[in-house]
Amino acid sequence: MSQSINAAEVAAAFTEAFGSTPDGVWAAPGRVNLIGEHTDYNEGFVLPFAIDRAAAVAIKLRTDNVARLRSSYGEAPTVTIDLDTLSHETMQGWTAYPLGVVWVMRQMGIAIGGFDLFLHSTVPSGAGLSSSAAIECAVATAFNELEAAGLSLNELVLVGQRAENEVVGAPTGILDQSASLLSTDGHAVFLDCRTQESKLVPLDLAAAGLLILVVDTKVTHAHATGGYSARRASCELGAEVLGVSALRDVAAADLPEASGLLDEETFRRVRHIVTENQRVLDTIAVLDDAGPVAIGELLTASHVSMRDDFEISCPELDLAVNTALAHGALGARMTGGGFGGSAIALIPVAEEATVRDAVVHAFAEASFTAPDIFAVSPAPGARKIS
Ligand code: GLA
After folding, report:
1. Residues of the domain holding 30
2. Cα dist. 100→85, 97, 161 in Å?
């Protein structure tokens, strides 16, 4: 199957797997985050947009209590499970994402019974492009409709986040699910993660003669383990010492005083969050004022802050960013949780081939795995596609 989701192909794969016709096919996209990294769980601001790569699920309700799940991932066999036995032990591997959502919705009192489900995704996993949120949001959107549960988009965001936190075990915020559910073609989503209030911000890159290239470094990461939760813990420590409920409440003007109260490392973590929140607000203002051509410096400053203060970059991400900047990018930064995954570069359309070639060459020179490079533009959010 190709990179864009074809509903008929997903339905046909369902029929081949289960021998019947699905009740519908639902798709939810991956995302890039334009700016605002690790600010979500600090109740701050983010500015992501959905990309034209998505997870799609074809589902048919059954009359019993059995779920059968199959995916186009490699040779994965069909998983069959009695829904009454759903537990952290029985939700394993890729099925933790769809079953995690079902588990959360059932906990909320939504009476989801048996179903057959076929999953196909074109969001690369471990690439920092929210492949897991795409699955969660497609499944949550599907059952919200199939069971007439009436949950709002913001409630579906929290369903996906709970599945991620409580079932998958990654202590993530609401950035990814919000991008996947709230996005609209041609817009980025400006989200206040404290109130869940959001605003669509026009982002017409083509009209400005620009495009955004994603450089997937192929360095994979998992947020259920390691650095992500350590960063979250540092932020929580910083907030506690500074006497605020979340780092959202620390202003740039408070930083000199904060530096005297925090250890050196925690201070740098806090400084990233405080300055990153301000960069999101500045990006919104600059977009409104001068358009996307003028946001490059903010993107690059965000990368520097993540590299030096938050320390979530890696040599491959830094090389992608530096090479893009040296060959005509207006700005570049890693996107997503970090420790691998993807970088984005904002470039004039005319420079695309130059930047691509330079990055491929630089990776080969450094003996890094060849990156996957592709252009993205703001795409629609989760929806029924058949
Ligand atoms: C991951 C998490 C998000 C967010 C980003 C960093 O994508 O899932 O909640 O914290 O990292 O901005």
Report:
1. 7-202
2. 13, 5, 10
